Amino acid sequence: MGITNEKEVQHCGTKPKKIAFGIAPLGIVSIGIVPMGVISIGVVPMGVFSFGAVAMGIVNLSVVGMGIISAGITTMGVWEYSPKSESHNHHNPSKNISNIKKEIITPSLFETKEAAEKASAKYGCVGAHKMGQKWMPCKTH
User: Biggest alpha carbon distance in the chain?
Assistant: First the structure.
């Protein structure tokens, strides 16, 4: 199979279309399966603004998102939003304030997952997550 001169065939180094559809479309606006572009909409979109099932980009709105700003069910990013999140922010202890004593609470490290899970009620969350060789309260950060 060789490279053809048809205008519709795209390959590495081809200038992106303004709007592209299909499997692995490359365009300023891309819609399809694994779309790539500035605005990507599809199953696994990869773009500056990505909307879809599993998005990878700078700003993501998806079920599973990985990027700088990410909103969805399962997210990873610098700024995240998830409606099911029961997280805490232990990097900024001034936000972890007890309603009872108004004292600053910094989550502790525990030797076992069970000990961290028991302590999570103190922080208003459930579960535990691994932090190096130790465990911290709350399912996620």
Answer: 73
| Domain-wise residue ranges, the chain | 17-81, 93-137
Q: Note the pLDDT tens digit of each residue in 49-66.
A: 989 988 888 888 888 888
pTM: predicted TM-score of the whole model, two decimal places: 0.50
Distance CA 45, CA 24 (A): 9
User: Number of C-alpha atoms within 13 angstroms, CB side, residue 102?
Assistant: 0
**How far is residue 76's CA from residue 60's CA, in Å, rounded to a whole number?**
10
CA distance 141 to 85: 9
In whole angstroms, give the CA distance from residue 70 to residue 78.
Answer: 8
Exposed/middle/buried for 55, CB within 10 Å: 0-12, 13-18, 19+?
A: buried
Q: What is the pLDDT of residues 2-15, one digit of tens each?
A: 444 445 555 556 67
Place of tokens 């999140």: 85
